[in-house]
UniProtKB/TrEMBL annotation:
InterPro entries: A/G_cyclase, Nucleotide_cyclase. Its EC number is 4.6.1.1. SUPFAM superfamilies: Nucleotide cyclase. This is Adenylate cyclase. It is an enzyme of class 4 (lyase). The lineage of its organism: Bacteria, Bacillati, Actinomycetota, Actinomycetes, Micrococcales. One of its GO terms (molecular function) is adenylate cyclase activity. GO terms for biological process: cyclic nucleotide biosynthetic process; intracellular signal transduction. The keyword Lyase applies. Keywords: Lyase. It holds the Pfam family Guanylate_cyc.
């Protein structure tokens, strides 16, 4: 499930506690109350001490004020960097950083000092690290908790404590994997976001009449959505663990199929996945494989799938533009177990014998007026091979 948390760039403050007046009146009327700090449960102290020793490099002996002084920047600039990287928001005088933390801050600042990046861009890159690693570690911890519950038969509190005990043992292997995979993913992204861009834009001209709203956007992509049918009803009837397993299975199957088809899973939004591919043909193969896989999986409900070929804007790890919006609208029009495409996507696929396109009645779509969708079906296409 998607988790929402405060933006690291947004300060979070709380008023100091006030001693109640002797006349019995409320001094905090109209004011936000300070949320008390969570109290550690018995047995957690030693586990957290072990965790800190295994994960945090060096004691937290440096305050933000001291960090700013040593880095030669203002306290405000130090606060901006630490929030971007996802560090906890604490008073400037509280000792919370280690020498390794200071080295991380300095690495960001060095890009600015050398003139490689301006300050805003450097902070944006820092925020990408902070936000992506936050999602990654939440995913990893929850996976460990789920494993402890299903494999070891532990209760939820026991599983979470066991996960804390496990983390120091797995951090080094995961760090090695992250370093290699980061460079590999960067190489792949450079190819699709720079080297092959012109070929995609040239291909996107097919079927255009010059009036499309996405014409100025810099990337051509096949954009697809797949969402589970009747998810809201299912979420009301399933217990927490069953729902979690269903969502996890859906995302796992979708991610495998998208990767096998040469596409990219942009994000998961609860019961829905957003993906893209570099060509309409690759997008069509993925869309059909998603629809067929979900229909054949006895543990999952069927899925509605859509695909639209057009131009998009890629920012902050997400994609934007009319093509994305149209694909989203088409998903709501699709019947369970089917794939819908728009007219331009149908035109791009019409000469390919691997696909069959069945025109559907025109529909009025909010924000787009009359849309002429087509049902996408397998022709001579070979199914994607997944494990």
């Amino acid at each position: 499930m998607t988790r929402h948390r405060p933006d690291p760039a947004t300060p979070v403050t709380a008023p100091l506690p006030v001693v109640p007046p002797s006349d019995g009146s409320r001094p905090d009327a109209g004011r936000p109350r300070r949320t008390p700090a969570p109290v550690a449960q018995p047995g957690w102290t030693s586990a957290m001490r072990t965790l800190d020793a295994g994960l945090v490099a060096g004691p937290p002996a440096i305050s933000r004020r001291e960090a700013a002084r040593r880095l030669g920047i203002t306290a405000g600039a130090a606060r901006r960097i630490s929030r971007a990287l996802g560090y906890p928001d604490v008073p400037d005088g509280e000792t919370v950083f280690s020498e390794e933390d200071l080295n991380a801050f300095d690495a960001v600042l060095q890009l600015v000092r050398e003139g490689t990046l301006n300050e805003d861009t450097a902070v944006s890159l820092a925020r990408s690290v902070g936000q992506m690693t936050d999602r990654m570690v939440v995913w990893q911890i929850e996976a460990l908790v789920e494993d402890q519950i299903s494999s070891e038969g532990r209760t939820d509190p026991e599983a979470r404590r066991a996960a804390v005990d496990l983390l120091p043992q797995i951090i080094s292997p995961l760090e090695k994997v992250m370093q290699v995979v980061y460079r590999r993913q960067l190489n792949n992204a450079v190819q699709r976001l720079t080297v092959r861009v012109e070929a995609g834009l040239a291909a996107s001209e097919q079927g255009r009449d010059g009036s499309e709203d996405d014409a100025p956007l810099p990337l051509a992509r096949a954009v697809g959505f797949a969402d589970m049918v009747s998810y809201t009803t299912l979420s009301r009837t399933m217990d927490e663990r069953t729902l979690a397993r269903t969502v996890q299975r859906f995302e796992s199957r979708a991610a495998e199929i998208i990767a096998a088809g040469g596409g990219w899973l942009v994000k998961t939004i609860g019961d829905e996945v957003l993906f893209n591919a570099e060509t309409p043909e690759a997008g069509a193969e993925i869309a059909l494989a998603l629809s067929e896989a979900m229909a054949a999986d006895t543990e999952l409900p069927s899925a509605r799938v859509s695909l639209a070929w057009g131009r998009v804007l890629s920012r902050l790890g997400d994609i934007y533009g009319p093509t994305v919006n149209l694909a989203s609208r088409l998903t709501s029009l699709a019947d369970p177990g089917t794939v819908l495409v728009d007219a331009m996507t149908a035109a791009a696929l019409s000469e390919d014998e691997r696909f069959v396109l069945v025109p559907q009645p025109p529909r009025i779509v909010r924000g787009f007026g009359e849309v002429r969708p087509s049902l996408l079906m397998n022709g001579a296409a070979q199914p994607l091979i997944t494990d």
